[in-house]
Design goal:
Blueprint: E1 53-56, E2 59-73, E3 84-101, E4 104-119, E5 122-142, E6 147-157, E7 165-177, E8 180-188, E9 205-215, E10 221-231, E11 238-249, E12 254-266, E13 272-284, E14 292-300, E15 313-314, E16 322-323, E17 336-345, E18 352-363, E19 385-398, E20 403-414, E21 425-435
Antiparallel strand pairs: 1-2, 2-3, 2-21, 3-4, 4-5, 5-6, 6-7, 7-8, 8-9, 9-10, 10-11, 11-12, 12-13, 13-14, 14-17, 15-16, 17-18, 18-19, 19-20, 20-21
Length: 444
């Protein structure tokens, strides 16, 4: 059974408050032969450490060191102000797992980090961070291994993070029957104050999610889902998303994915209804160093919005996850079409990869705003072409020695929806991770 992870940032520049874990979360593990595990192929630094170092007969420990560096130039596309923005975040994540019997597990993970931000060479933020990433109790292998329940804080993450990549407190249950994994949950972001030091308002939106998955084979599945988000601070802000997902292998060399959804409600106070989809395929050649080609097209209607919990991060055929709508521009799929083409190589089979990815963005209907993106400039509302981006992604992951790394370079070229004098933007992101207790060190 896949372990859900939760990541919640905690600042340590105020008075210490006790950690309250009076949250209810229910998740279920399904039957061993059919249970779905939301595990992507690439290295993802957000994954929590596995507690695989035994301390006591029923108590295990895990830890990992993390380091992230990001540099972005000219985020506002303004030629008169070539601002540079840099962030550095070193971190240590530690986890404990308690398994006294096969039906019970308690797991907790905590992250100690520093956050340093610089703008044009000057420090704008310098703080320590304390995060509670996971804290749950799991009742598992119930009813002939078809059911399990979990109490605590969890991370919601679907396979491509098209729906959710979020830290939510609440209740989730999975049930396996007649070849179907059915998941049900009621959650909210931050029912318990997630900041151990400072007050945190948290997300006051209730989430009601049902997700049903059927596996045609080990590598191919289809799913249907219902997501209702209700903002308790504003009775007029709510939205329902209905949709289907499928991904898998059409042949040994050809893989695909499909996301198709329809949303309606009043997520921002005004009534909307619209559809969106994301369809793509990767072909990997059966030769060394396993070259691959990826083509994809994503469309969001002018009144379509993603859930607000999405991460839009996955891999094509490589060893590292990246933002597949553009590492720099990184838009929400709303009122937009995104054309994507990529080529990749795996020089050392499954441990390393090189991907070169191109994106082209065009608005469905010309608008003077973008729902969400990684740039700080607004289009003119008259032209539809937002521009293009080229990303270079280098990935490495070695499970034996516990080391993983990802380097992503992004270059955004604005389209005619922005002023003629707009300048290109550049981003560089480096992520390093070292996991203690790797196979080569500790074994099983």
């Amino acid at each position: 059974m896949a372990r859900p992870g939760v990541y919640t940032r905690i600042r340590v520049d105020g008075r210490l408050a006790p950690l309250l874990t009076a949250v209810i979360t229910i998740i279920c593990a399904a039957h061993d032969t059919g249970a779905q595990e939301f595990v992507r192929g690439g290295f993802n630094p957000d994954d929590p450490p596995e507690a695989n170092i035994k301390l006591l007969p029923y108590l295990s420990f895990g830890a990992q060191l993390e380091f992230e560096y990001e540099y972005q130039r000219n985020a506002d596309l303004d030629t008169t102000n070539d601002e540079d923005f840099t962030t550095i975040e070193p971190a240590l994540v530690m986890a404990l797992s308690f398994n006294p019997i096969k039906y019970f597990e308690a797991y907790a993970a905590m992250k100690f980090a520093g956050e340093f931000e610089f703008e044009d060479g000057h420090t704008t933020k310098d703080r320590a961070v304390l995060e509670v990433e996971l804290a749950y109790i799991l009742l598992k292998e119930l009813w002939d291994e078809r059911l399990a329940f979990q109490i605590g804080r969890q991370r919601f993450e679907d396979e491509r993070q098209w729906l959710f990549e979020a830290e939510l407190d609440g209740a989730r249950a999975f049930l396996y029957f007649y070849g179907i994994d059915a998941a049900f949950s009621v959650t909210r972001g931050g029912i318990v104050d997630v900041d151990l030091i400072n007050r945190d308002a948290g997300d006051k939106t209730n989430n009601y999610i049902s997700y049903w998955t059927y596996h045609f084979s080990e590598d191919t599945n289809a799913a249907a889902y219902f997501i209702f988000r209700d903002n308790t601070k504003d009775e007029e802000e709510s939205a329902i998303t209905l949709g289907v997902h499928s991904d898998g292998d059409l042949t040994e060399s050809l893989g695909y994915w499909l996301e198709l959804a329809y949303v309606f409600g009043t997520p921002d106070g005004s009534a909307i209804k619209g559809g969106g989809f994301d369809l793509g395929s990767t072909y990997a050649f059966d030769m060394t160093p396993e070259p691959s080609i990826t083509l994809a097209y994503a469309f969001g209607g002018k009144n379509f919005m993603q859930t607000g919990l999405q991460g839009n991060e996955s891999d094509f055929n490589g060893a590292a996850d990246f933002l597949y709508y553009g590492q720099l521009f990184d838009p929400e799929l709303s009122n937009m079409s995104i054309f994507t083409a990529g080529v990749g190589l795996n020089p050392t089979e499954e441990t390393s990869s090189i991907d070169l990815v191109y994106h082209y963005y065009i608005q469905t209907e010309a608008s003077d705003s973008i729902a969400d993106s990684g740039i700080d400039a607004d289009p003119d509302g008259r032209h539809k072409s937002l521009g293009s981006e080229v990303d270079l992604v280098l990935g490495y992951e070695n499970e034996d020695n516990g080391f993983a790394a990802a380097v992503v370079l992004g270059y955004f070229i604005p389209g005619n929806a922005f002023p003629d004098h707009s300048e290109n933007s550049f981003l560089a992101n480096i992520t390093l991770e070292y996991r203690f207790g790797a196979k080569g060190e500790w074994g099983e």
